[in-house]
């Protein structure tokens, strides 16, 4: 087992890049909050991803929050490279225009965080893109707190093809 697998389960997200005309989407576990003010989020993208090429070209990306119903598409987005195929045609996800970036948002996702790259840090075989969140769109029911009673988010159990989801139980600290 790789040392990093001890950090799992991890939440799984989608990252869109490119443009509405030529969109791409990949799956990413390695997404992390970095700053409240300004709102910054980090995404670690391997050098060999087509997504990296598109983020370098446009300086923008969107972090989309999928639920477990989208697992089939999340798996395709995470196993097929947009370098070889137009993934948009293989997926049943709907790309919709974002408000402040060229990279599209995903209609079926519960939230879309539109990001502009403010820094890129080389981290071994990945690049940590630091994105400033310039706009967020979300489901109406999602505006107060993430709704873990009604939404089943995607948790990656470890490296490989096993996933789980959140429980609707709430424990107060
Ligand atoms: C659940 C899951 C999580 C993943 N997390 C990441 C990640 O955080 N960073 C990364 O570079 N690749 C990650 N990948 C791999 C990419 O999603 C995958 O290589 C994808 O095909 C890249 O697409 P692209 O070449 O079109 O950018 C993940 C794959 C899966 C299935």
TrEMBL record:
<dbReference type="Pfam" id="PF01613">
    <property type="entry name" value="Flavin_Reduct"/>
</dbReference>
<dbReference type="GO" id="GO:0010181">
    <property type="term" value="F:FMN binding"/>
</dbReference>
<dbReference type="InterPro" id="IPR052174">
    <property type="entry name" value="Flavoredoxin"/>
</dbReference>
<protein>
    <submittedName>
        <fullName>Flavin reductase domain protein FMN-binding protein</fullName>
    </submittedName>
</protein>
<dbReference type="InterPro" id="IPR002563">
    <property type="entry name" value="Flavin_Rdtase-like_dom"/>
</dbReference>
<dbReference type="InterPro" id="IPR012349">
    <property type="entry name" value="Split_barrel_FMN-bd"/>
</dbReference>
<keyword id="KW-0285">Flavoprotein</keyword>
<feature type="domain" description="Flavin reductase like">
    <location>
        <begin position="7"/>
        <end position="144"/>
    </location>
</feature>
<comment type="similarity">
    <text>Belongs to the flavoredoxin family.</text>
</comment>
């Amino acid at each position: 087992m790789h040392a990093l697998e001890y950090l799992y389960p991890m939440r799984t997200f989608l990252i869109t890049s490119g443009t509405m005309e030529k969109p791409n989407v990949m799956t990413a576990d390695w997404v992390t909050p970095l700053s409240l003010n300004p709102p910054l989020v980090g995404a670690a993208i391997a050098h060999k991803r087509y997504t990296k090429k598109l983020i370098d070209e446009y300086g923008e990306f969107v972090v989309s929050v999928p639920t477990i119903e989208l697992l089939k598409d999340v798996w395709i987005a995470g196993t097929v490279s947009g370098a070889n195929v137009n993934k948009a045609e293989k997926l049943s996800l709907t790309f919709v225009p974002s408000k402040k970036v060229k990279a599209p948002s995903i209609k079926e996702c519960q939230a879309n965080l539109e990001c502009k790259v403010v820094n890129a840090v080389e981290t071994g075989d990945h690049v940590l893109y630091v994105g400033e969140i310039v706009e967020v769109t979300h489901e109406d029911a999602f505006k107060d707190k993430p709704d873990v009673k009604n939404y089943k988010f995607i948790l990656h159990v470890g490296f490989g093809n096993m996933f789980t989801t959140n429980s609707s139980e709430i424990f107060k600290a």
